[in-house]
From TrEMBL:
Organism: Capnocytophaga catalasegens
Role this protein plays: Pyridoxal 5'-phosphate (PLP)-binding protein, which is involved in PLP homeostasis.
PANTHER family: PROLINE SYNTHETASE CO-TRANSCRIBED BACTERIAL HOMOLOG PROTEIN (PTHR10146), PYRIDOXAL PHOSPHATE HOMEOSTASIS PROTEIN (PTHR10146:SF14)
Domain Alanine racemase N-terminal, chain residue ranges per copy: 2-216
Keywords noted in UniProt: Pyridoxal phosphate
Protein name (Swiss-Prot/TrEMBL): Pyridoxal phosphate homeostasis protein
Sequence similarity: Belongs to the pyridoxal phosphate-binding protein YggS/PROSC family.
Any one GO molecular function term: pyridoxal phosphate binding
Cofactor(s) demanded: pyridoxal 5'-phosphate
Modified residues (N6-(pyridoxal phosphate)lysine): 25
Length: 219
């Protein structure tokens, strides 16, 4: 199947209310252009330098999403153009994003990455860490960032019941912040679901899926 056919099939699964981030981290500018020509406009990358290189050479109506772990000292390279950062996992990182956004005279949208998987993963906030950040005055005073929701990654397992439980947990945190937070926020994005588990994620309330191999693999 071509990239175009893959996109058509996935889009049919997603329906109207779920947006698709095509994860292009392992793929060339030529492959991204094939997806672009099939109508795809949102692409996700996991490394700031690679994303910036692609941004420089590809059409300017592409929306670039940072989905990987972000180092504070590299935020400045994406601050002028990044459309959504999915992977914010500390107040320190968020203050740097706020500062770089201010320098670029813009507001940067972001998601908090929440640790929902039972497997040991290095990145992501616990529910308590999330609530302690959003209730801090530091957070409430940041004027150049806007919280749009949360991102979670399910455990890499065949156990569908476990994945479902993790996604429902993410949905419950999403609903809680949506109903309770108002400063710096416009909460409408629940980013969860990848090639292997996006159907489960959508059934659990995902509004944005991040799909790499199912878009770009041609077999
Ligand atoms: C690589 C990656 C994806 C896409 O994974 P696939 O299994 O190729 O769909 C989604 N989210 C994050 C955070 C990733 O790093």
């Amino acid at each position: 199947m071509s990239i175009r056919e893959n996109l058509l099939r996935i889009k049919a699964d997603l329906g109207e209310n779920v947006s698709l981030v095509a994860v292009s981290k392992y793929h060339s500018k030529e492959e991204i252009m094939q997806a672009y020509q099939a109508g795809q406009r949102i692409f996700g990358e996991s490394k700031i330098q690679a994303m910036t290189e692609k941004y420089t050479h590809l059409p300017k109506d592409i929306q670039w999403h940072m989905i990987g772990h972000t180092q504070t000292n590299k935020v400045k390279y994406m601050a002028p153009y990044v459309s959504l950062i999915h992977s914010v996992d500390s107040l320190k990182l968020l203050s740097e994003i706020n500062w770089q956004a201010q320098k670029n005279n813009r507001i940067i949208d972001f998601l908090f990455q929440i640790r929902i998987a039972q497997e040991q993963t290095k990145f992501g906030l616990s529910e308590n860490e999330l609530f302690s950040i959003v209730s801090s005055t530091d957070f409430q005073q940041m004027q150049h960032i806007r919280l749009r929701g949360i991102m979670g990654m399910g455990t890499n397992t065949d156990n569908q019941a476990q994945i479902k439980q993790e996604f429902l947990y993410a949905k419950s945190i999403f609903d809680m912040i949506k109903n309770n937070l108002h400063t710096n926020c416009n909460i409408d994005i629940l980013s969860m679901g990848m090639s292997g588990d996006y159907q489960i994620a959508i059934a659990c309330g995902s509004t944005m899926v991040r799909i790499g191999s199912a878009v770009f693999d041609k077999n």
